[in-house]
Amino acid sequence: MTNLPSLKDAYAKYFKIGAAVSGYHLPLFGDILKEHFNSLTCENAMKPEPIEPQRGVWNFGEADRILSFAKENGMALRAHAPVWHKQNGLWMFRNAAGETASREEILETLQQHMETFGQRYGEEIYCWDVVNEAVAHFEKDLVLRPSNWTELVGPDFVAESFRIAKKCVPDKVQLFYNDYNEWMPHKREKMLKLLRELIAEGAPIDGFGMQQHLSIYADMDEIRRSIEAYASLGLRLHVTELDVSLYTVYETGRPTITDEMLRKQYDMYVELFRIYRQYADVIDSVTTWGVADSMTWLNTSAVRIGDRKPETAPGYRMNFPLLFYADHRPRPYTEQIIEDALK
């Protein structure tokens, strides 16, 4: 397959094609991004701790660089994510005296944070992952995971976060809930419960972000069922953090990558995009978590902290989960995905 159009052009009639990036990705992957993508997500630059490391001390530099790159190249920008159990500065949960803040003080701090963010970026962003990964995965008897938000604000912190966000951004900015393992039946039921409650309470939620961090052993039937279940709620859907690992999360060491594993990955990516196209009436964008295989969070997931040469650390392994090789060539399944969209 040669001289095929770009991903974004092939999928123009279906949905946006996005990538999650940090500022240092722009010079490294600018060629791929400009050719193949029309949406960007700030991987970390718009999370609370990086952008407001101390109360009232803002660091807009990296987010501004990503926004400028997006505008210069006609790309839409997704914001991610002010309310999460990680990367929240502890100051968000402390009052002026340095003591644990009350519920009211925390919500006021969150509103001040969102107001400043909204005033700066306004309609420059088209959607916002307001709350990220609030649903419990391992705790069978809990819907919401334990966190500072649940313990200090209460179980309604998700709804309150959406209500605050709605006041702080223009009406045209869509507000999303975002989470992982959304295709697994036990977690899907919890997410559906949360989303139904938010809708019933009148929380201003527009959509659900399906992260889709998958492995080659994921159940495609459950992925389809999940898309249908979330779409039935009347929410817009985004695939927000797509990658397809060659390993399961339980494998350790450096298993040999076999032709069979690569064939499974090829088949999964082709089938995933076929499903996404079938549901393009409810899916507005598909975003990969990274750009090319040379830089993916899955390459570092097994690295021993503090090791100066992670490639030599026990248990470290390379993964190849994205749409482009390290040398920026499209993976074979990427070429097939493009060709399939043109039929």
Structure summary, number of beta strands: 9
Bin the strand percentage. Answer: 15-25%
Please give the count of helices. Answer: 11
Strand order of the largest sheet: 1-2-3-4-5-6-8-9
Average pLDDT confidence is: 92
Give the biggest beta sheet.
Answer: 8 strands, parallel, barrel
Which shape, going by the Cα principal axes? Answer: globular
- Which structural class should the secondary elements be placed in? alpha/beta
Provide the helix percentage. 25-40%
* Rg from Cα: 20 Å
* SSE string: HEHEHHEHEHHEHEEHEHEH
Calculate the terminal CA-CA distance, rounded to whole Å. Answer: 14 Å
Taking pLDDT < 50 over at least 5 consecutive residues as the criterion, the unreliable ranges are 301-310
Describe this structure in words.
- The structure is a single chain.
- The chain has 343 residues and is of the alpha/beta class.
- The protein has 11 helices and 9 strands.
- The protein has an 8-stranded parallel β-barrel with strand order 1-2-3-4-5-6-8-9, surrounded by 6 helices.
- Helix 5 (103-121) packs parallel to helix 7 (157-168) and helix 10 runs parallel beside helix 11.
- The radius of gyration is 20 Å and the shape is globular.
- The two termini are 14 Å apart.
- Residues 301-310 have low confidence and may be disordered.
Write a concise keyword list for the protein shown above.
343 residues; alpha/beta; 11 helices; 37% helix
